[in-house]
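Weekly modeling sync, notes
Attendees: S.R. (lead), two postdocs, one rotation student

Agenda item 3: backlog of single-chain predictions. S.R. asked that every request posted to the team notebook include the full sequence so nobody has to chase files. The rotation student volunteered to paste the first one in as an example of the format we agreed on. Action items at the bottom.

Example entry:
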Amino acid sequence: MQIEFQILRQTPDTAPKLDRFTVEADSSETILSCLNRIKWEQDGSLAFRKNCRNTICGSCSMRINGRSTLACKENIAGEMARLGTASGETPTMTIAPLGNLPVVKDLIVDMKPFWDDLEKVEPYVSTSSRQLPEREFLQSPDERAEFNATGNCILCGACYSECNAKEVNPNFVGPHALAKAQRLLADDRDDRREARLESFDNPDSGVWGCTRCYYCNSVCPMEVSPLDRISEIKGEILDRSTKDDSRPIRHRKVLLELVEEGGWIDERKFSLQVIGNYFKDLQGLLDIAPLGLRMLANGKFPVRFDPSEGSAEVRGLIAAVKAATQATTKAGA
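Predicted structure, as returned to the notebook:
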């Protein structure tokens, strides 16, 4: 069957343009196989990375039909099904370079920012914790299983490419780095747990910079689920923190308290308690004052918030979750 490829091509000095190629291919062929044939048979100047061809190295990451993934993993049939291509219709594959990274040429991007952000979380077991010359540092299968998910990460960059938080906040280290960070927290060989948690608690570059858009989970080809790993770090930080420690921590603790109290969020209390820090943060209060005045002027500031229906059930659910969490913690200890 004939497949049309639309490939976004550019260099740092030229504007992006779409080049079109037609390939005769079987529906079972991978996107990478088709790109190879375009390069070998039609345009030798087409630039893209590849290596293992077996979803191990992560080299061939690119955006395929609007989604970051591995060209060696996705095939024509799968993309046709995802796009809803009708029978008899010529499939069109749109290929572009990864996002959030500068383009070197065509589908090749400069990965240096990606590696620099990974380095910021120090993604290796601390050497001071391994000064045990009398024996080998062994782990049990259960200890190793604690970071099985993050161990599957091949650093392909798909999550980084689709990260909305990274797109708007260049200081955010990215989902790949924080997934690797969680792996170190779960590794009993590392002795920098508390120091790591403190550094990950940064509201700008750390876990609170994540917008929870879920894209990293949806595109990860190895099912690492970076968002879940970030949530695990947040949980560890919250367990060790109080509402006075930072606004992101206060945001989550106050939200839970208000839902537990009334079954929903009383937005009047929420703003004053989170942003105004219970009237202790003068700058925070000044920041929200204009919005509050506009709401009052337009009759949109509620005089009262009644508890929602089913608030007792909500409190019961929260209590049950807390009890189950405490029981799991005790069992693990």
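Discussion: group reviewed the output briefly. The chain has three domains: 2-109, 112-239, 247-332.
Action items: rotation student to repeat for the remaining queue; S.R. to check formatting next week.
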